[in-house]
Amino acid sequence: METAPPLWHVGDGCALDGVASTGIRKAAPMEQLSAQTRIVDGAIRSVMDRLRAEHGETEIDTGIADQWEFRMHYGSLNATLDDGSVLIRVAAEDETCLSYMKMTVAGHFSEHLGTTKGIRWQGDGSDAGTPVFFREIRVVSATRISPHMQRVRFSGSDLGRFAHGGLHVRLLLPPRGRQPVWPSMGADGLLVWPSGEDALVVRVYTIRALDAAGGWLDVDFVLHPGQDTPAATFAENAQAGDIVGMIGPGGGGTPDAETLLLVGDDTALPAIGRILEELAPSTRAEVLIEVDGPEDRMSLADGENIAVAWLYRQGVEPGTAALLPAALRGRDRAVLPENLYVWAACEFADFREIRKIVRKEWGLPRGRHLVTAYWRRGAESDDEGEE
Q1: Which residue ranges make up each domain of the chain?
Q2: Are 290 and 313 in contact (CB under 8 A)?
Q3: For 193-232, how does the pLDDT look when each residue is reduced to its tens digit (9 = 90+)?
Q4: CATH no. for 134-250
Q5: Domain boundaries 259-375, corresponding CATH code
Q6: 33-123 has which fold?
Q7: In terms of Cα–Cα distance, which of 308, 263, 310, 278 is closest to 210?
Q8: pLDDT for 312-361, tens place per residue?
Q9: Residue 100: which of 60, 72, 58, 130 has the closest Cα?
């Protein structure tokens, strides 16, 4: 078995560095769970300085020397430095979010100290056994819904927690022909992953639809004809009864804004579909979507407050058409809505261009855009990688 990095990576479009100002709709405050650990190390001050630098936007001024507080997307973190050690307390609204906060701490210390040996949590939450955010799910059906999209319906139990707290999950695909070995929780708060012949293929996907009472959820997979991509290959060949694992939820949610510009390619279609379905009636949304051709259009929520434009690659290889950046670059910054929020997800090259347009050319502040790369052309990580 091997330990892995935190469940959700930090960066554009990822939840662990999100705060209320990002425009992502957050749940109402609830009674908090909490846990704490004391870490002793000669380099502890340096490690805490790095934590403050990496999460500076979430830090709350305590006015007290060597005492820090951070309000992160999944909860709060309080730290007190004292004689070569730090006492860290994390708090969150439920066990899933509390586990994510523990992972934030353990992942940071693992990266900058090279070990989590001194981390042992006391308080709420389980620190061993099956993660509270893990579910084993089974294929019910697999349906081709467009030339390049396969919808797989899974059944599972206790799915209610996946209806809020982020659009995305990690699917864990076990080796074919072997009994699945699922990850467990370590005492430090990090996941311990199976390795060797039991190693799992792990990919991030959007829950397209979920019925917790009915015990099912749908995930849409972009297919890659002629390419050996594990998750897409799994979806294309999925049979009723096939078992996979799922951990989550995580990632961003529905942006809370008066005016939205949603931009994406095929891989963003499931997330855009969810966002439009959860849109407040008072929010106006313009949507730009790049797909191969008219046959790849999908049914999306509509209304007087929603305008959708489809851009067609017409046989050009995905990730090379650059239609999305071109559509944005032609816009006059002076006539952009004052309260505009831009959400974009696409191939890495387009991601870089769109981020440059939104940040530098349009001058939108960080709290009014979320731009992320869901995949990178030519990379081996395949499929919809919502990192």
Answers
A1: 33-123, 134-250, 259-375
A2: yes
A3: 999 999 999 999 999 999 999 999 999 999 976 677 899 9
A4: 2.40.30.10
A5: 3.40.50.80
A6: TATA-Binding Protein (3.30.310)
A7: 278
A8: 998 888 888 899 999 999 898 889 998 999 999 999 999 999 999 999 99
A9: 72
